[in-house]
Design a protein that fits this description.
The complex is a heterodimer of chains A (805) and B (394). Chain A is an alpha+beta fold and 805 residues long. Chain A has a seven-stranded mixed β-sheet, sandwiched between helices. Chain A has a five-stranded antiparallel β-sheet with strand order 6-5-4-7-12, with no helix packed on it. Chain A has a five-stranded mixed β-sheet with strand order 15-18-21-22-23. In chain A, helix 14 packs across helix 17 (617-630). Chain B is rod-shaped and about 135 Å long. Chain B is of the alpha+beta class. Chain B folds into two domains: 5-123, no CATH class; 142-378, BirA Bifunctional Protein, domain 2, CATH 3.30.930.10. Classes of the chains: A alpha+beta (805), B alpha+beta (394).
Amino acid sequence: MKFTLSWLKDHLETDASLDEIVEKLTMIGLEVEEVTNRADRLKPFRIAKVVDAEQHPNADRLRVLKVDAGDGELLQIVCGAPNARKGLVGVLGRPGDYVPGLDVTLSVGKIRDVESFGMMCSERELELSEEHDGIIDLPEDAPVGESYAKWMGLDDPIIEIGLTPNRPDCTGVYGIARDLAAAGLGKLKERPHNQTRGTFPCPTNVRLDFGDTPALCKAFGLRLVKGVKNGPSPKWMQDRLVAIGLRPINTLVDITNYMTFDQGRPLHVFDADKVAGDLVVRRGHAGETIEGLNGKTYTVDETMCVIADDNAVESLGGILGGEISGCTDETTNVLIESALWDENGIAATGRKLGVNTDARYRFERGVDPNYMLPGLEAATKLVVDLCGGEASQITQAGEVPDTSRIIDFPYAEVKRLSGIDAPVPEMNLVLKSLGFWITGSGDTVKVAPPSWRPDIEGKADLVEEIVRILGLDRVPSTPLPRTDTVTAQVLTPGQIRRSRARRSLASRGMNEAVTWSFISHDQAVLFGGGADALVLANPISSDMSDMRPTLLAGLLTAAQRNADRGFPDAALFEVGQVFLGDKPEDQKMVAAGVRRGSAAHEGSGRHWAGSADAVSVFDAKADAEAALAAIGAPVDKLQVYRDAPDYFHPGRSGALKLGPKNTLAVFGEVHPRTLKALDVDGPVVAFEIYLDALPQPKNKATRSKGQLQSSDLMPVRRDFAFVVNDDVDAETLLKAARGADKALVKDVTLFDVYKGKGVDGSQKSLAIDVLLQPVKKTLTEEDIDAVSKKIIASVEKATGGTLRG
Amino acid sequence: MRERVADVHFSDKTPNHSRLTPNAIIRDRTHEDRMSQLDTLKSELLAAIEGAGTEAALEEIRVSALGKKGSISEQMKTLGKMSPEGRKTMGPALNALKSDVTDAIAARKTVLEESALEARLQSETVDVTLPLRASPVETGRIHPVSQVIDELTAIFADMGFSVAEGPDIETDELNFTALNFPEGHPAREMHDTFFFNPKEDGERLLLRTHTSPVQIRTMRSQQPPTRVIIPGRTYRCDSDQTHTPMFHQVEGLVIDKGSHFGHLKWILEEFCKAFFEVDNIKMRFRPSFFPFTEPSMEVDIQCDRSGGEVKIGEGSDWLEILGCGMVHPNVIRNCGLDPDEYQGFAWGMGIDRIAMLKYGMPDLRDFFDADVRWVQHYGFRPLDLPTLFGGLSS
């Protein structure tokens, strides 16, 4: 919402400075976004008269002017404008002046051998409009020598406020003045109650016709003014409209725009001679079209409200008038419309057709219903004053709804919600000056909000009115007391898991990424997603259309982006949500990571102490296990399965499970087909940890760690090597060795995997180091032999292998 | 590990015997002669010990003097055949000699060990300027969004808040209606909502446009007093330098029987000081509008934009950082509570935005690009867990 300072002062009697007004506006909730003063830039430009104009000796299209700028000296100026002529009064820029529209500072120049001491400016050169057909042509009596900006009324600061949607009353300058007056910044000038007596009945009738559907128009007032003389509106009106960015059209149209911004009351004017028969306000018929005043054609439907005559749709009610019945300079009979539209209907139609107009902006927020007819009267007076003519009586369809309501208001509510302890008379004064009625006395009174405040529903709204006008700086900063109940745990177990997984992975040298929750449909399908329920109806682009079923799509493509930038060894992870369905419980938390190139745990690339190899499945496995350990998973109880999802390499991937059905994590080399589909170059390994899959730990009765069990007896180590078939998993062998004697076998470490000379081609040798820990007595050679035999038997049975001789 | 000195002894093939074994001469001499011979032997042995250049040579000397057939041992053997007088004088003299020689050997051994160690250490010298790989725990980085959420958690946990969360895919009811956004109201349109396709029953899910639906979920599921902060991902179809279709918000909610706007003001003042790590910060509360709060406010903080970058807590400019207000009675009612009994406040702000203000990232879009250069530069080390006692971001 834009207005000028002088416009505000039409309604507000005040001595306050611009700065005070701006500050106050912001502090009462009408946030000032920008203050501009066009005069500041145009200060040096003066009104000047062309005393003489001669043909340029060396150029057909140029003239040499002698210009009087009021200081007695004539300036020679070369000018190419077609309207440059003797006697013209225009705007002069002199050497040293900055011309904003050209972004040039003038200097003395020579044009085709004739010296020029400045320029006569067009409106575009001064950034006043797009007009550039000729130089500015002022009335003959414009005062030569004076500041152009000042004379033009440009020295009028333009204030732009960011209006919140609850304040339709401040879509007009008058409402803003009312707020400022209530806040003590001056006195609101009374709005004149003009009434123009109609001397004849309005010849055009109007009818609301919504059948048994909800009415999209509540009330409609109409009157004819006949015998008007239309044409350009007066300069003061044009100046204000231009200042706030509107284009003056003609007086009748300008009056409607002026009323829109002055009073927040949009109106429409029809050229009565172009309206056939009566007007009916109804729902649109499918397929009907209307050519709007903005030059665009719209197709309406039955959800939209239109105004039609016998021929066609003449207006999109409350949003946009039609071109056919619009007022032109030739209009002599004008129908003025002031109506009340359904807010939701306006909003829905505007959205559907994509039309934003000043009228829509106001009607969808809710205009003052009680001002429908006074607004029509005010507009009538302007029409008659500026264009002459004779007004008809007003014809009205529908009834202005009674929006009056009473709110029980305990004054104590102000202190309860805001902490401000304000005296009752002070609170009353605020409410009254904003137009509220107060009746009753005592602790609780009855308050009636004014018709222009549809946003006021209850006592909390009244508190807001009082608090914002009194000033939020009066709210006492009050320390929040500690609650007397035991504070709940700050983080849920799930949140703690995420945090631990995150810091554990980062401590393995990985960089945390945050990638989009949505990925392309193809990518979603690639990772088992893409269900209809998870496809956005209005994605911002096609590669962000589906809720992600995995974090890997985002991470893999991110790794490739980094490679394309010259960083091939990226180690990235993300801890975030994936979507397996559209219900809250289908949103799962996952920690996932990728390592590309040679991004090993110890570091990447070449190094004197040992260069990093290409990443392998074991890098991903190590990450997954480390993060699982960090979140409290029983890593020693996990089993490794081979059934990782099919976006992994089938022979180089695995799943870490707690029991056959509960997968905690998957890891592996990414399948070459997956990489190809994502346009990612390998080698890349990846893992996913399903943070929600880990069962919640039982609530322990004690935090005690129990007693340390340590033996004074020396442990004994023995090495064994077994030759087994290639397809035997190390896990099977280790499990067999561990289970061979649970009392004595404390730990089993696999320290060598060997293939080659001495071992059959389809076999491998696995060497283990077994730690035996006696508990009761030192082990004898016989004891050790006995347990060794058990281990060999157990392993041979489980793996089908043999002890390597 | 065993000493390697023994090996040196056995491998040393060049002992110098001749001068050190004058046994034959000493035998058959008179008592005086023998005493003077002992003096000679002593000085020879001490000189030899002093001159031993290796531990092996020293061992040779020890054996030649004190070994089974060593010169001193041989002398000892002769004591038994001596007269008691002779034994009286020769005994102590021989014992003294033995002790002196033993001590000298021990002293010399220490010297030789020291110099051998010196020599070994000298030979073991390496180039300690060789650069190492950085420790992974120092090279990994936490994303600023995660770090800032941890900072917020630390600050508000201290004030008795816990962390609540909710799903990203929400219902229209929880994202709008229950939060007092009237159907068709322009305030809804300001949210640029991402929708899913309508289901068969006409229900249309959406991506939450703010974290506020979790206010409703929290109030409906727990009895006041309530103190929660709600961080999370939020979505709006918008994209430019300061808007991305996905971003992060944090919301705070207090519901009880007496918390008013003065408490909110205090909390936000404390928060700003703690978060921006300044002793004092000027704040400006402006009335504003949000459908789910009444009264509603926006908060600006003092800043200085003069140097090209924003400095918080000084200067004369204002910077908007959050919106807040007393929870609207309709919202309290929509959660099954009586607004005349319960009251409270809520506030919300952009996590990415306050991260940018505090840490100076120029462009929001970079947050979601996973460029390792960016994460390395703006990210945080994994062990830098923000705490109030340790400093949030020191």
